[in-house]
């Protein structure tokens, strides 16, 4: 394996996609450097010529590792899983592994994109909050039902999986958009348990190099 120096993560402190990768890196004990990309400053640093050379999709995260650059959080996480398998983030049992991927996709494809910065800019004005709340609520209604059948301490039984890496940042977003979490006791319980783990704490948006002073823990 090409080990060309320490990995570099291009990240934004409050990006849920970036947070998923930060959790994975922390869980697997991978030391890395972080290159902040401010999604708001200067019209969005992700649109700069310099960053387009890193990720032509103009999105975070991107991870420079093993002599390549990867984008898309789940692709990054699965590469880390395949090249650095311990501790594992996908269950050994094939049915549980499929469920972990299903829940991850449910969040990263079915909920998060509909309330991210790009969509909210298009919605605009006073409708932003209502839009975000609507789509998070729709997604959480389904997710709560799914988790009632798959969860133990965490999303899939009692081992942390890729699904958990997707859940916690999405709950953070729900809280930012003032979604009532009372109807989702399973989601709330799992999120609370995960936030007690060190990897989820050190990767939290309030503890990043680019976290504004007023938002730091």
Question: What layout of secondary structure does this protein have?
Answer:
Elements: E1 8-11, H1 16-27, E2 33-36, H2 49-54, E3 62-65, E4 68-71, H3 73-83, H4 94-110, H5 117-123, H6 127-150, H7 162-176, H8 185-194, H9 198-202
Parallel strand pairs: 1-2
Antiparallel strand pairs: 1-3, 3-4
Helix pairs in contact: 1-3, 1-7, 4-6, 4-7, 7-8
Please state the CA-atom Rg, rounded to the nearest Å.
17 Å
Q: Roughly what percent helix?
A: 40-55%
Order of helices and strands: EHEHEEHHHHHHH
- Beta content: 5-15%
> Strand arrangement, largest sheet?
2-1-3-4
Count of runs of 4 or more consecutive helical residues: 9
Describe the sheet with the most strands: 4 strands, mixed
General shape: globular
Record field, number of beta strands: 4
State the end-to-end distance.
Answer: 37 Å
Structural class, from secondary structure content? alpha+beta
Structural key phrases:
4 strands, alpha+beta, 9 helices, 217 residues, four-stranded mixed β-sheet
In short:
The protein has nine helices and four strands, in the order E-H-E-H-E-E-H-H-H-H-H-H-H. It is an alpha+beta fold.
Structural overview:
With 217 residues, the chain is α+β, with helices and mostly antiparallel strands. It has nine helices and four strands; from the N terminus they run βαβαββααααααα. The longest helix has 24 residues, at 127-150. The model has no long low-confidence stretch (mean pLDDT 93).
